[in-house]
Amino acid sequence: MKLVIITCIFIALLINNTICAENLNDKVFLLREKIMNKEIPYSNIEDNYIALLNEAKTTKDKILILMELIKESERDTNPDKVIKYCQEILLLPLKPTEQCSIISYIGRALQEKRDDQIKIGELYLRGIVITVKNATEEEVQSPPAVGRYRYIGDSKEIEEELKKQHNEEIMLREKIVANNELLKYREQFINDCVLAFSKVKDRKNEYLNLLDKYLKDYPIVQNKIITSISER
Amino acid sequence: MHWKKRLLILCIGVPILTWGESQTGSVSGDKPDAVVHFSNKVDGSYEIHAAPVSPWVFTDNFEWSGPNGWYSKGEGTYEIACEKLDFLTYTAFVDASLCFGARMNGQMYIPSNESGNTIPWSVSSAYQPSPQSYIDPAEALIAVGETKSFRYGYDNIFYTNPGGLWKYSGTDVDGNSVQIDWQNAGANYSLPTTLKAGQYMVTAARNTQGAFSAYASAKIIQVKSVSAGTIISATDSPTDNETLYVSKGNATSSITITATPEPGSAWPTGYPTWKVNGTAAGTAGSATYSLNTGTAGSYTVSATCGTSTKAIKIVVLEIISQTIATSPADRTRKTIGIGEVVTLSTNPSISVTWSVSGGGAVSPSSGKSATFTASKSSSTSTIHATLGTFDCTLIFNVIAPTGFNTSIQSSPGLGTLGNNQIGQHTIYNVEVTPTTVSFYNVEFREFFTNTSWTWPSGLVTNLGLSPIPWDVGYNNLTYDNIIDGPYPKSRIYDGTNYINFSYTFTWKEQYKNEAGTWIDFVTGETTITEFEGSSLECRTTNRSVQGIWQGPWQ
Predict the structure, then answer these.
(1) CA-based nearest residue to B182, from B162, B163, B195, B159
(2) 3-state DSSP helix/strand/coil % of chain B, to nearest 5
């Protein structure tokens, strides 16, 4: 009888301290909620996410968890860990917007570490190149609506056509949203790059060479940065 | 007492008859000290005689003293005198009336009084009332770098403008002692404009010995500092350390800037004067200036006293916001839809630390601008732009969708009209409300209630549709594609007739909140599909918005 009770208590404790959820997404969501509600000591957050990272099978899951680790490291003002997890995530196939997000995190971490401004500026130049290469539209647009549909009938053809149209709308919306995000990142990276190089105006040759290296094919952006630096 | 006239002085070779005044002081054992009074302020010469009252007799010698110009007429004369010499303008001697403080003294005795000793006697002069020297003004507050004229004057003398020698001494605000020796400057004098601010004493006198000296206190005032809130500036070129940040207020809000003088606490008349960004402002002579904080900007407020200026920088900061969504037209609105993205910037443009409380996220955490992404749940979010202890805030009211409007956009139908198939295709416009904000960044879905019905033909339809995700643009608009059929017309044939029939579909609308939970915001909505047996037409009524009869189709 005693053994049963002890076993029950042990199981209850185990359940209480384990992230109980079906899939990894839900587990991440639950963990995030526990962190938000301060149910998990700050020092244990990283361990909890690493445990989930070890469970992650797909690239998508790994990216999701590494992003959480990066966010938490930044919140913890730990630039070394931010950079460490960013380096890990950059080994995975990331979407352009995800790459930009990682560049933002690395840039802030390097600034926190008071790293070399030329190095930081170069990082943002890489970000700018990602945005100019991947943006398909040059203006921020309203994400297009995705319509609703409700089909009641026997025609598979009609149903498929409706689904296809719906998916196309979803894809177009995602494309525009991603493009808007890239344009936003571009503006941000240009500002950050100008800010970094403005701090080392005495090393003009170095940053001009870098601007030429990365933005030779994008003279408008290159000139915008050079003009902004000179105005500061 | 007797009068005596004398022909005295030759001036530039021309003999001048000058009248004089002579006074005798009589002394005795009972009254050994006598004071004589001259009657005239103006006279050519003055003499004082000492005379013993019988039986008293002076000894031969006497001593005398007197200001510059008095002289003794010799042993046994018991007489001293002075004369006015107009051409000698630099000594007190010229002004005999100022020099009545002369005195003779000696010993006297009664002859043949063998047991008696000599006793002292004295005769001195006085003038009633006594001459009084002064400097006008006796106290002066002078703006540094500016001039102020002092006048050396006397009461009760015959020269109204007698001339004088001047000197000053004091300590400047840096603690340095300053002392300047006599300068012959006449009746009026001004301290040099190069003197630093400080506390000085000005002295004027008739000669370098300080005869008839008078004093004035002179404070040369400069602006010590200007202050506002907790910031004090002692420079005329304020930097970040001399900058006060305040949040933009309304049209009547203001902040007070106070100027402090040194030395002391009083300002020269008309000072300080005020400027804002180089333009005259405020009231000259007021120690404070009230800066309106109803307009954002960077203001350099300076207070000036003479050549001294101190300035403080006041940055009236506001957070400017602009929604990413171009619709609704007011992009500066502070009521926004859940998930809306707003760009933030500081005005004037300065780098701050950004944060948000009450929900949502702001990124990056520092810089002149940032992006605020509202929570996906209703909330009141406060944006903080902080600089040290200064916190400029902006509040957003984040609201969730509450419903939507429906209207018919078109009725495309199901192909070519005929007599075989029944059904309908209607497209509805959908506008999420409230339309005062944008919900373009919200995930929506339509959630259907499973249902089933039996057709007149006896066929049973069991329907279980998966939720359909949908989104809106900046303008909150999307559309709803509702298709029923085409069905063979036999579905509404009950074996005898084509009969009227309808089925009803119940659904609700949901959005995903910050926690990832789907929240109902429209519930209990129905779509009714009706078939008319006689015409084989079909129509839908979605949320009470009735479509047109359509069909039948080939």
Answers:
(1) B163
(2) 5, 55, 40
Does B367 sit within 8 Å of A191, measured CB to CB?
A: yes
Closest alpha carbon to B430 in B451, B449, B459, B409: B409
Could you tell me which residues come within 8 angstroms of residue B87 by beta carbon, excluding any fewer than 6 positions away?
Answer: B11
Q: Is some CB atom of chain A closer than 8 A to the CB atom of B482?
A: yes
For chain A, say whether B486 makes contact (Cβ under 8 Å).
yes
Give the span between the Cα atoms of B223 and B384, in whole angstroms: 36
Q: State the complex-level ipTM.
A: 0.75
Phi, psi of B293 (to 5 degrees): -110, 25
DSSP string of B3-32?
A: ---EEEEEETTEEEEE-EEEEEEEE-SS--
The set of long-range contacts for B273-278, using a CB threshold of 8 Å and a minimum separation of 24, is B273/B303, B273/B304, B273/B305, B274/B301, B274/B302, B274/B303, B274/B304, B275/B301, B275/B302, B275/B304, B276/B300, B276/B301, B276/B302
Token pair of B239 as six digits: 């930097």
Contacts of B473 in chain A (CB under 8 A): 142-145
Which residues, including other chains, have CB under 8 Å from residue A43's CB and lie 6 or more apart? none
- B242/A contact by beta carbon, under 8 A: no
Chain B residues near residue A150 by CB distance under 8 angstroms: 446, 448, 465, 468, 480-483, 505, 507, 527
- The CA distance from A178 to B274, in Å, is 54
Measured between beta carbons, the chain B residues lying within 8 angstroms of A170 are 469, 471
Per-residue pLDDT of chain B (554 residues; tens, 9 = 90+): 333 333 333 333 333 344 678 899 999 989 999 998 877 665 667 889 999 999 999 998 899 987 666 788 888 889 998 776 554 443 333 444 455 678 999 999 998 766 668 999 999 987 555 567 899 999 999 999 999 999 988 765 545 455 689 999 999 999 999 999 999 888 899 999 999 999 999 999 877 877 778 999 999 999 999 999 999 999 999 999 999 999 999 989 999 999 999 999 999 999 999 999 999 999 999 999 999 999 999 999 999 999 999 999 999 999 999 999 999 999 999 999 999 999 999 999 998 999 999 999 998 777 888 999 999 999 999 999 999 899 999 999 999 999 999 999 999 999 999 999 999 999 999 999 999 999 999 999 999 989 999 999 999 999 888 899 999 999 999 999 999 989 999 999 999 999 999 999 899 999 999 988 999 999 988 999 999 999 999 999 999 999 999 999 99
How far is residue A8's CA from residue A48's CA, in Å, rounded to a whole number?
Answer: 24
- In angstroms, the separation between the Cα of residue B283 and the nearest Cα of chain A is 37
B355 within 8 A of B391, measured Cβ to Cβ: no
Q: Given CA atoms A37, A40, A44, A45 in this order, what sign does their dihedral have?
A: negative
